[in-house]
Fold:
Amino acid sequence: MDTSVIAAPAGVLPAAAPPPLTCTVVDDPARLEALRPQWLDLLARSAANEPMLAPPWLLTWWRVYGQGTGRRLRVGLFADGDRLVGLAPLVARRRWYRPGIPFRRLEPLGADMDEGDGVCSDYLNVIAERGAERCVARAFAEALAAGRFGPWDEIVLPAMDGLGPMPTLLTEALTDAGLAASCTETGVAPYIPLPATWDDYLKALPKKKRYGVVRALRDFDEWAGGAAELRRAASSAELAEGKRILTDLHGQRWSEAGQSGVFAAPRFAAFHDAVMPALLQLGALDLAWLTVRGESVAAVYSLVWNGKVYFYQCGRRPDLPDGLRPGIVMLAHAIRGAIAAGHREFDFLGGVAVYKSQLALATRPLVQLRAVRPSLREWARRSTERGIGWARAVRSSLRSAARRVRGAVRQGQGQTASPAPEAETDATPSAAR
Structure:
């Protein structure tokens, strides 16, 4: 095999490398408001065209969750001449690691993972024009390393779409810039690649799950006796009615479990009071509810964006006859409506739930990217985490040994050994879903 280098013909110069991108870091909310048209245009040209990366969602989040909380805007704009080709919507804040180690953190707008009343934004990312992802990732890493985003110790990008190009490209670029970067899977987002018809969707479900959906619809229709009506918010008045119904049914569902539901949190409610009208105006809101004989029994709140439907929140009456599954019925109507509208995907977003696994046909990984500057703080954090992990392992080992001793004592006394207690699990639902 000939491996010789072929020289360029005389008079023909090799293609020049593209000029470096310029980086501007914005810390003024008014400047971001003025960038809405360019921001939306870039999003439409990117592979990360997600509603939770759009200005209506993130700028509303900043007004409700960002201001007055010690966070500071650090939004990076990357341009090729006059053309915006990349946008990194970040904030800076203080993050405390055990036992009290302060870190200066950069993280995305909308990343309220430490908030008890947060909105749980998924698919947060650095936005890049298709074809320019590698250049944007490199320019972003170089700007970080050069201190263009201000002083920082770590950058954390949670809940990124693990199937997109940016997690890998950013990890490589940050590593090349001399930073310690890693990308780990933290969860999954179930979804449905929507077929052409509802019947095709049912056929794609495993037999047991298909039977569960069909039976839920049949039992509900028999109970409703033809009196069920599906309504959707298409005006401001209908939005107000639908929001009231959703909030009430969501609260009923969680009060049954001894909880109040997320809409009882003032900031959560204020966020959706502001963002839902903006989404409705853009044609990006699907708020629907199901009534039977004039009584609302289930509601679902979804975002519609870029040919996809994103299920976000729901509510249902808990006092219906045993065996009825109004939540599954409501979601079945939402999926059927998405198919009829010609959408390509129904996304359940992040989080594990039985109803999601029953209805979804696939999952995509959610990943978290973290990069850190070498520092005494990071050494102390890692040492502390290792110590905590070691202490947990020792505690678990001692508990297991104690259970074995108690079991042996009971057996020696002629008693049947008690089974080991089940491991504790966090069954608390996420703030948003």
The first strand starts at residue 22 and ends at 26. Residues 376-412 form the longest helix (37 residues).
